[in-house]
Amino acid sequence: MSWSLDLLPLSPCMELGGPPLSGLLWTLLLLFLWYCYRVGSDPPSCRSHVGALKSSSTLSVLSRSTMDTGRLAPKAVPAIAMETGEEEGAESYLTPVLSYAPFPNQAAAGSRKLYGALQEYAKRYSWAGMGRIHKGLRNQARMNDRASIQKPHLFYLPDVPSIPFFPRDAHRHDIEVLEASYSIILAEFQAVYQRGIDTKLGWTYQGPKGQAVFPLYNAGVCVASNCRTCPCTYRTLLSLRTFISSNSLGAAGFWVLGPGASLGGTYGPTNTRLRCHLGLQTPAQCELVVGGEPQCWSEGHCLLVDDSFLHTISHNGGAEDGPRVIFSVDLWHPNVAAAERQALDYIFAPEQ
């Protein structure tokens, strides 16, 4: 098909059995016919190439969608008959826990009991957010067997940032509340201390000779008679935001260490808590070493200690220096999530 400009009339308009057409309309008509000619003459390969591009784009979108669906779909955790010895470090604590996998064969009876409590909690509430606790309970046997400067003997929560001494900002509110109540807490301690250290008066002996404790909370249980003796201190405890008061990992009370006494290298039971020490009477010759880092107490000020690290306490002063006295309160580790705290309250409930 071809067109020749010689066929065009020179007059501005012409008749084709109807009304006259202007030159502009003739120009538009010629352009349209030229376009139809060019489109009709395109080789089929070009048209098929355009279609292929569209098809491949659609397939690409579908394949990405399929891949994303496969990646996001939760994988069922198979039942494990026995521990294989493979490291679970590649698993994220955010990975959903979807099965009740049997506990490792070498796990102690106490760890199996805790794992059973976690299962009961998940049945009542949810497995959501339980990845780290699930992993920690399964790996507790390995934790106890390894040599480490940090080795909590009861429960280790994986992937929790750990240092021997934490900055004040980790629990600024609770620290400021305790320090503001220093004079009241000290006065109530002195009233209790002057009555004498006697188990009949609510005192207990712990650790080395010369160390005694007047507990307000013991393993998550309120010691009602002692709290009535120190009502202002008790109310201060209740005003704290992160005090562990509902499970056996938490305690609070007055700790007295006499001159010449020392506590050898020990580990705390868990890394899910920090011990806050408010100095009440702190002779100069007293020292606390946690994870190889030494610190000294100061009267009226708090120290935040992760006692799951190897730690020692010593009072090298003389009788004239008097005892070292601190008010110790167990607070949640700031990196333990709210859902994990609730689960740990259930797992480590005092009655279990």
From TrEMBL:
<keyword id="KW-0223">Dioxygenase</keyword>
<feature type="domain" description="Aspartyl/asparaginy/proline hydroxylase">
    <location>
        <begin position="180"/>
        <end position="334"/>
    </location>
</feature>
<protein>
    <recommendedName>
        <fullName>Aspartate beta-hydroxylase domain-containing protein 2</fullName>
    </recommendedName>
</protein>
<keyword id="KW-0560">Oxidoreductase</keyword>
<keyword id="KW-0732">Signal</keyword>
<keyword id="KW-0735">Signal-anchor</keyword>
<dbReference type="InterPro" id="IPR027443">
    <property type="entry name" value="IPNS-like_sf"/>
</dbReference>
<keyword id="KW-0812">Transmembrane</keyword>
<comment type="similarity">
    <text>Belongs to the aspartyl/asparaginyl beta-hydroxylase family.</text>
</comment>
<dbReference type="GO" id="GO:0016020">
    <property type="term" value="C:membrane"/>
</dbReference>
<dbReference type="Pfam" id="PF05118">
    <property type="entry name" value="Asp_Arg_Hydrox"/>
</dbReference>
<keyword id="KW-0472">Membrane</keyword>
<dbReference type="InterPro" id="IPR051821">
    <property type="entry name" value="Asp/Asn_beta-hydroxylase"/>
</dbReference>
<dbReference type="GO" id="GO:0051213">
    <property type="term" value="F:dioxygenase activity"/>
</dbReference>
<dbReference type="InterPro" id="IPR007803">
    <property type="entry name" value="Asp/Arg/Pro-Hydrxlase"/>
</dbReference>
<keyword id="KW-1133">Transmembrane helix</keyword>
<feature type="signal peptide">
    <location>
        <begin position="1"/>
        <end position="41"/>
    </location>
</feature>
